[in-house]
Amino acid sequence: MAPTSAHSAIFVPGATVAEVSFGDDFSADRRARLLQTTLGVMAGGVSVVDRDLRLMLWNRNFVEFLEFPPALMRPGVSLIDLFRFNATRGEYGAGDIEQQVRERERLARKFEAHTFRRVRPNGRVLEIRGNLLPDGGFVSSYLDVTAQAQAEGETRAAKERAEQAFADLTAAQDRLLKAEKMASLGGLVAGVAHEINTPVGIAITSASTLAMETEKLRRLYAEDNMSQEDFERFLGVAAEAARLLVVSTARAGELIHAFKQIAVDQTSAERRDFDLREYVDEVLLSLKPALKKTRHRVMVEGPPARLMVDSYPGALAQLLTNLVINALTHAFDPEGTGTMIVTLDQPEPDQAEIRFSDDGRGIPENHLSKIFDPFFTTRRGSGGSGLGLHIVYNIATITLSGQISVYSQTGTGTSFKIRFPCMSPKSALAPVPDSNTPE
Questions:
Q1: What local confidence, expressed as pLDDT, does residue 17 receive?
Q2: C-alpha torsion angle, residues 12, 14, 18, 21 (rounded to 10)
């Protein structure tokens, strides 16, 4: 005849209160020994508290983990006494001891299931889980998760360091991009200032010559010694001086206008309506000083009709400047002769397109996928920062809300195509307690 079973409730760590069956041949004493052995070999601590908050059952790890003195651990000891012992030795931190005890008693008498971690003063981290007993009270398990908590802390610290490093890198990159932009503007200032020197110098010389000849003629007239030949010679000098003054000052005016417009645009993020062809001509005019030092030239073609855009001219000026400088730096030999062509088009009513092509040395195929990456350059140490085309990419895709593509073949040149809305989206430049448990 199969033996019948008796049932006794015991706790299994990591689970709810479970029913464990004993055969009829298990006496009460044998069951107690088995239960004592089971609790003793558990890796974690275990405690059982009744509805009156009296400690009824515990194992060795419970005492060891919480470092309770043996004299205190007697059957039926009140959980309140354990709270007071912990509070007295500073287990709960600084504060009024009786208030700490009352607070934990209040939480314990809620008899609610709980899970939390507690860091003891000695650094040990315990994960404590409490489950309710059917007839009142609760059974709690205590696992030493110090190593796990340290690993989690190290992982968290490593993540924070990585995030901080990324933030620092992003900030450094932003500073470098701004520095690159200001360097471009500084080059523009220096180049235009140098270029203006020529027409201004001619104008000054012409004005000085005219003033000198006028004074000479005035003296001849005052002395009543002016001949027809003197007067005709003066008229010739005056006419030539006037012509040079008109041409030189007009040239200086063009340069100043172009520089002023481009400089204002590059230092602001304002959008406005402008004619694309006229503005591109102004940008290239401002780059003439840099081109005069070489044997290269830039040509502009199109559009077939007037093309008005509502966009960010400063960004467009920076884009074209970087493309020209990039071509001068990478596409051509210093003593060679090259041609850059800027083609403007309107492929669709609401789209504008800029194609920038050069007939230089081209880009190797294994570099094409990297040219827009920040800090990628084949001329490091020779004037290349690796940011020029990265800025071009950001302007085309973010500021102008467009797309950019590149085609190149070694030995035949490179072509960039930028397509962007005639009316940029307005958002284009919208410049990432104590636990309720008692132990």
A1: 40
A2: -40
